[in-house]
Amino acid sequence: MREEEKIVKHDTQVQEQGRQLEAWYALWNAGLMQKNAARQFFRNKGATETQFKVLMRLKYAGRPVMPKELSEQLMVDKSDLTGLADRMESAGLLRRVRSTADRRCFLLELTPKSEAILEEIEQPYFELIRQVMSVFSSEELEKIIILMAELHKSLDCRCGWSAPDFPLRKKKG
Fold first, then answer.
1. What is the tens place of the pLDDT at every residue in 96-106?
2. What CA–CA distances, in Å, run from 89 to 22, 31, 105, 162, 171?
3. DSSP bridge pairs for 97
4. CA separation, residue 114 to residues 54, 58, 120 (Å)
5. CA–CA distance from 9 to each of 18, 84, 125 (Å)?
6. Measuring CA to CA, how many Å separate 151 from each of 3, 124, 163?
7. What beta strand segments (E) does the chain contain?
8. Nearest-CA neighbor of 163 among 72, 27, 28, 33?
9. Highest mean pLDDT among 5-9, 126-130, 149-153
10. Are 125 and 34 in contact (CB under 8 A)?
């Protein structure tokens, strides 16, 4: 390879690395901004963003859920979920019930209080999401979903966490 070709190849690699870094930070910053918007939304709503995620998973599961399954879906350690579940149970946001299949196991389910909170905030939260995401066309949203799925796969290979499917999106096929 001639010297000129080496320089062009090096410049191309540097440019690609710069684009990768710019995309990484753009995703990172968008995630931080999303977290801040959610934190502001959930202020004085009767549930935190994390509690809302738990309640949504329970609601859309349509059945009581094992803590292990919920921790996998939320990508948190089971011990962290146990502490969160303790606090949510104390606040009346969820209930632990014994599994009929295995009396040693407990399942988590919604309470009337958590159902009322979801009734009050679920649609306004979806409206916030709609407003934020309305800058994208349907085609762009589909591309984002596909690209994020690819990113999840790449990250899964490196960190061992599998990103779960969101319960509102039906799998194709």
1. 999 888 888 89
2. 42, 29, 16, 27, 32
3. 107
4. 10, 10, 10
5. 14, 51, 47
6. 35, 29, 10
7. 94-98, 106-110
8. 72
9. 126-130
10. no
SS3 95: strand
Of the candidate CATH numbers 3.40.50.1000, 1.10.10.10, 1.10.730.10, 2.40.30.170, the domain formed by 47-134 belongs to 1.10.10.10
CA dist., res. 60 & res. 144, Å (int): 23
Where do we find the tokens 């990484």?
24
- Supply angle C-alpha 41, 46, 47, rounded to 5: 70
Burial label for 53, CB within 10 Å (0-12, 13-18, 19+), is middle
